[in-house]
Amino acid sequence: MYQDKFQVPYIKSFLISDPRYHYYPNFSDEETEAKKDLRVIFNIVNFSKTKSLYRDGMAPMVKSTSRPKWQRLPPKNVYYYRCPDHRKNYVMSFAFCFDREEDTYQFAYCYPYTYTRFQHYLDSLQKRNMDYFFREQLGQSVQQRQLDLLTITSPDNLREGAEQKVVFITGRVHPGETPSSFVCQGIIDFLISQHPIARVLREHLVFKIAPMLNPDGVYLGNYRCSLMGFDLNRHWLDPSPWAHPTLHGVKQLIIQMYNDPKTSLEFYIDIHAHSTMMNGFMYGNIFEDEERFQRQAVFPKLLCQNAEDFSYSSTSFNRDAVKAGTGRRFLGGLLDHSSYCYTLEVSFYSYIIGGTTAAVPYTEEAYMKLGRNVARTFLDYYRLNPMVEKVAIPMPRLRKGKPPSYKHPILRGPASNHPNGKGDKKSSVNHKDPSNSF
């Protein structure tokens, strides 16, 4: 599990009891009296997928007390194979030699990004008192952890009656997909910076970011599910305020923005990590309107030009029935023709640069760089490039007094109770499968 104190002395095998939801994001041998040069083979059993990045060179990560930086094990020590002893599911085995008796070792599937780290990060941003950065608690999880909502924009855009173009970004709905948090942090770090592009974006757009939709799952070390065992990204159609409170709160806010005649919700991007594919890529929706479908492809194409690790050839557009409860599918059916909804995926392992065949393993910095490039791409999409040359680089302004009232307060009660305020948008905001409207 993904907890710092999760202890596994002399591990030989891990059993993944339900291949859909449980994994081994992080474990340690804190109580092991390991002898120097002790060789151990770890077996992680009950994988269900035939295709795996372990077959493409991915390996678990390790760090120890004396070597605190995460690094990948040599791929030659990792094996992924089908095992008849486990209902013909797959096993990932890796060999490791404990070389220092006094060290505590930790192993991880990918670079960890904990709930505690996330809270410290947001606390540090809040202390900077930037007048274009706002943090609020949109709700709480089942175990009363914060659902943070960030608003990054010029204060002028938050004045009463101001029209807003909103980009809504979410992450970590699947708690084990830690690259999502690094990408999201890259987006945030760039948008709050004094880079001329960031300043132009803040002047023209309102960024609403919910970086951690599943804080309980992250804290507890789940790979895909919430505290109560739900895959939250299959419950957008009818989230329960009791069982899925974080998802319910975000959906209410999005519907309120949709119904506000002064607000244009132009983008929804949900960030994930992928366990079988390389590079960054996107999933989009399919529409009967060919022009709308073609417009939807513009942003991924621009991102491909800005980010060497983003693959447009791996980007796909679908309306699979199994994805009907996802944020991308539900909101793609709810919002009007001016809104575009995507799932942004990034590999747990590596990317391949165009024109080459060698895989380049992702680092924490590479994930954050992808986030910065996502943010930059909005400049190209809105054709704001000429504005950058006019922007000087002043010192950041500090917020004076209390921040302005949030335009989208937390809502109570069923999301479908809110009337539609825009005449040209869909009047139905119920929980029916949006695929029926395609």
UniProtKB/TrEMBL annotation:
Peptidase M14 domain sequence ranges: 111-382
PROSITE patterns, sorted: PEPTIDASE_M14 (PS52035)
Cofactor(s) demanded: Zn(2+)
Residues passing through the membrane, by range: none
Residues annotated as catalytic: E345 (proton donor/acceptor)
Coiled-coil blocks: none
InterPro entries the record matches: Cytosolic_carboxypeptidase (IPR050821), Peptidase_M14 (IPR000834)
Entry similarity comment: Belongs to the peptidase M14 family.
Listed name of the protein: Peptidase M14 domain-containing protein
Organism (species): Rangifer tarandus platyrhynchus
